[in-house]
Design goal:
Number of strands: 3
Largest sheet: 3 strands, antiparallel
Keywords: ATP-binding, Nucleotide-binding
Distance between the termini: 91 Å
GO molecular function: ATP binding
InterPro entries: Fido, Fido-like_dom_sf, Fido_containing
Strand order of the largest sheet: 1-3-2
Shape: globular
Number of domains: 2
CATH topology of the largest domain: Fic-like fold
CATH class of the largest domain: Mainly Alpha
Organism: Sinosporangium album
Protein name: Fic/DOC family protein
Radius of gyration: 25 Å
CATH superfamily of the largest domain: Fido-like domain
Number of helices: 12
CATH architecture of the largest domain: Orthogonal Bundle
Order of helices and strands: HHHHHHHHHHEHEEH
Strand content: under 5%
């Protein structure tokens, strides 16, 4: 008897391939942020929260949502932390925009050096304004490459000396563009997640900026994904140890574990778009996939938190419910509204009339 443990890496890759085919065959590709606004918004909140939390930011998801949606800082965190999230959110919004109204790519290439620098500049400017890196010179601000050598990492990997950075990062951008060409020709030769893992690790090994390399690296990875027609991925803060361990394996040329982590993240967000279109009425899906003009994601989340909508909150902080439960919630609201109208009408009929009474 085979145990029902964690699916193998090969199974994860097979499931991902199937989800990608389903996305294109059933839905005609990834819905744009305009067509699936609530799902994209939910991913945006989660990515900004978890990607900055991987670097030590302490804002909770609710604080991130309020900051990004309303521009209000709630809680009692430092200005630096709010600005970290705000900058990251601005950069992620630009990245997601490439799935809606792609800007003209640099000669049709998957990525350009100027776009890489733009992402870092956008993500880091807000926090740099209040808390610049203590060792940075005037030439090492957001969007500019470092002019310092980086000490060897605790795991032993040493980024290249700073004079080598411009050439190394241009070579890395060329590798990204080559992967794009191979994918167009269906000539990649090995699993896409492991190729993405190699590229992501390669960027972090170069460490082109004096600060913000982790955030910039994850944002650039998501730019590559949305331009290839896939949703951006989220690496959750609870995955930090596994993520760092996978990066260490990748430093030594083993991209399997990092590729698997990326594949699982790709599948998770692909399902956000696919499942609502193919799931049965009782299948649990994220609230973002159930929101519509009648019930916003905020309204559904409030109903779930108050116990009025049958829903569960997962370990990732995401509330999930089903179309069946939303239909039941809608019917209950209509019944409650009808009862309220009937009660109000009865009260009106029983109230003494102000006309025709005694003078």
């Amino acid at each position: 008897m085979v145990g029902r443990g964690r699916p193998s890496r090969a199974t994860v890759y097979t499931r991902l391939d199937r989800a990608i085919r389903e996305l294109h065959q059933r839905l005609g590709g990834l819905p744009s942020p305009l067509e699936a606004q609530e799902i994209w918004s939910d991913i945006w909140h989660l990515e900004a929260h978890h990607s900055t939390a991987l670097e030590g930011n302490t804002l909770v998801l609710r604080e991130v949502q309020t900051l990004l949606d309303q521009g209000r800082a709630v809680g009692a965190k430092s200005l630096r932390e709010y600005n970290e999230v705000k900058g990251y959110g601005d950069a992620a919004k630009w990245v997601y925009g490439q799935a809606l109204e792609p800007e003209v790519w640099n000669d049709g290439q998957l990525l350009s050096l100027s776009e890489l620098r733009h992402i870092h500049h956008t993500a880091m400017t807000a926090v740099w304004d209040v808390a610049p890196h203590a060792d940075a010179s005037d030439q090492e601000g957001p969007g500019n490459f470092r002019q310092h050598d980086i000490h060897p990492f605790a795991e032993g990997m040493t980024p290249p000396s700073w004079p080598l950075v411009p050439g190394e990062i241009q070579g890395w951008v060329d590798e990204v563009c080559e992967v794009g060409r191979k994918l167009e020709e269906e000539d990649l030769g090995h699993p896409l997640p492991e190729e993405l893992a190699r590229l992501h690790n390669g960027f972090e090994r170069i460490h082109p900026f004096i600060d913000g390399n982790g955030r910039a690296g994850r944002l650039v990875l998501n730019l590559i994904l949305v331009r290839l027609g896939y949703p951006p991925i989220i690496i959750f803060k609870k995955q930090r140890d596994a993520y760092l361990a996978s990066m260490r394996h990748a430093d030594a040329g083993d991209y399997g574990s990092l590729g698997e982590l990326i594949a699982r993240a790709m599948e998770d967000n692909l399902n956000r778009f696919i499942v609502p279109n193919v799931a049965g009425p009782a299948r649990l899906v994220p609230l973002a996939a159930l929101a519509n003009e009648e019930f916003s994601i905020h309204a559904l989340r409030q109903a779930a938190q108050r116990g009025r909508l049958n829903a569960v909150q997962g370990h990732d902080g995401v509330w999930r419910s089903s179309r069946k439960s939303v239909d039941a919630y809608r019917a209950d609201k209509h019944r409650s509204a009808a009862k309220s109208k009937t009660k109000a009408a009865d009260q009106d009929r029983s109230r003494p009339s102000s006309y025709g009474g005694a003078p």
